[in-house]
Amino acid sequence: MASKLKQLQSKAGQASQFLSKHGTAYYKQLMEQNKQYVQEPATVEKCSELSKQLFYTRLASLPSRNESFWKELDYVKNIWKNRKDMHVEQAGIAALFGLECFAWFCAGEIVGRGFTITGYHV
């Protein structure tokens, strides 16, 4: 256990050194590349306005998202009705999609338990 702690401390020290050497240059490069997205002056009022714009823009997109959802659901219902005509490739894609959904569910459960498999903290 002590050796793992030393390893972790060593890795943390290396990461800290890397950030202290290269962090400022990376920050400057990132800000230069994305300067068109920066609002000047950065006031509380402007930030509040942008936050409201984002919220209401997302809210306005709900009807089109809802419509897309129902189209997808109708497509799945149609495939299910005609499942006898389904090809092996389509069945494989559906199985992979189901497996992916299950994997995301499991990953979400693990994250929700604090990144533990059993739910018990050691």
TrEMBL record:
GO cellular component terms given for this protein: mitochondrial membrane; proton-transporting ATP synthase complex
Subcellular location: Mitochondrion membrane
Any single Pfam family the record assigns to this protein: ATP-synt_G
Keywords: ATP synthesis, CF(0), Hydrogen ion transport, Ion transport, Membrane, Mitochondrion, Transport
Keyword Magnesium attributed: no
InterPro entries: ATP_synth_F0_gsu_mt (IPR006808)
GO process terms (BP): proton motive force-driven ATP synthesis
Superkingdom to which the source organism belongs: Eukaryota
Keyword Transport: yes
Family: Belongs to the ATPase g subunit family.
Name of the protein in its database record: Mitochondrial ATP synthase subunit G protein
Organism: Deinandra increscens subsp. villosa
